[in-house]
Design a protein that fits this description.
single chain; alpha/beta; Rossmann fold; 7-stranded mixed β-sheet; 15 helices; 7 strands; globular
Length: 311
């Protein structure tokens, strides 16, 4: 498929696109997918943010975007059927717990499989799910009948990986989300284990419309990637208030990933990335004397940062 040459699209990106399309046509998607993802990320960092945003929304990338949308993960992120990019079904594509739609072409399936094998972001999201499952199990071993809340829970896939959840070893588990369809899945999969699917938004938590109290563990896996810093600080303070003494709050936030250019150009998916200091500053509205322990760390890939606060 041809593409009009433009001053906004570099020769290197055009060459990457040619390699990408050739690979898709030949059935060997790996070299081309890597070249295109790398080319988009290099283009993103080579120009001012406003110019990059203008390019991603222009007709110049339209033909390429149509090809990228053969991948069901990429297409869903762009179309946003639930009103936002990172919905729970999209995350299930990342986890491998949702099959590609029946109408997905062989090329689209190959693109999705490549993402699952090679994407740093995919690996970090999978690691994040498993990490929170492990933390739930550790808590249950230390504090029988502990109380846990997952904020913006999606399909609560970490619950399927937690022995404590499956064994009903916790006192209370609240899975909170604003998406009613996600909560239906949570209720179907986990209500038998005592998990409560609770409707509510971030604003509901801040205003007190939805209240948590005396929790042993509160965590937010993917929420903070969308919250402006002032709002994120306020929420962190509110969630910390909802802990019992000795309780722990953990929030995750993307730091970086090499396929960011692909997400922004082909999925219109713009996360808020934070560095170590910005993640640490999420606790700025909490009196330091109330924090027993503070820990900031990143996952093995360095893509997602975590702030852990013990009350």
């Amino acid at each position: 498929m041809s593409h009009p040459v433009s001053h906004s699209v570099s020769d290197s990106l055009l060459r990457a696109a040619e390699q990408w399309q050739l690979g898709l046509s030949s059935g060997d998607v790996s070299p081309g997918m890597a070249a295109m993802a790398r080319g988009l990320s290099q283009t993103r960092v080579s120009m001012p943010v406003d110019d990059w945003r203008a390019l991603t929304s222009s007709d110049e990338l339209r033909d390429w975007r149509a090809i990228a949308h053969l991948c069901p993960y990429t297409q869903r992120g762009f179309r946003k059927p639930r009103g936002y990019a990172g919905d729970a079904v999209l995350l299930d594509y990342i986890y491998g717990s949702a099959p590609a739609p029946d109408e997905t072409t062989p090329t689209g399936r190959a693109m999705l499989q490549w993402m699952r094998r090679e994407s740093e972001g995919f690996r970090s999201v999978q690691w994040r799910r498993d990490y929170f499952a492990k933390r739930i199990d550790m808590l249950a071993a230390e504090r029988p009948l502990a109380r846990v809340a997952s904020i913006a829970c999606g399909h609560f896939r970490e619950g399927q990986r937690s022995a404590a959840i499956r064994q009903g070893a916790l006192g209370e588990v609240i899975a909170l989300d604003h998406d009613a369809e996600s909560l239906e899945v949570v209720a179907s999969d986990h209500s038998a284990f005592g998990v409560k699917a609770v409707p509510g938004s971030v604003r509901d938590l801040i205003t007190g419309k939805v209240q948590l109290a005396d929790m042993d563990l509160i965590y937010a896996a993917g929420l903070y990637d969308y919250l402006p810093q002032p709002f994120a600080k306020r929420l962190t303070s509110r969630l910390f208030d909802s802990l019992r003494p000795g309780g722990t709050l953990i929030v995750a936030n993307f730091v970086q990933m090499w396929e960011r250019g692909w997400m922004e150009a082909f999925m219109d998916w713009w996360l808020i990335y934070r560095d170590h200091d910005e993640i640490a500053s999420l606790a700025d509205e909490i009196d330091e004397a109330r924090i027993q322990q503070r820990h900031v760390f990143t996952d093995p890939s360095g893509c997602v940062g975590y702030l852990e606060l013990k009350k």
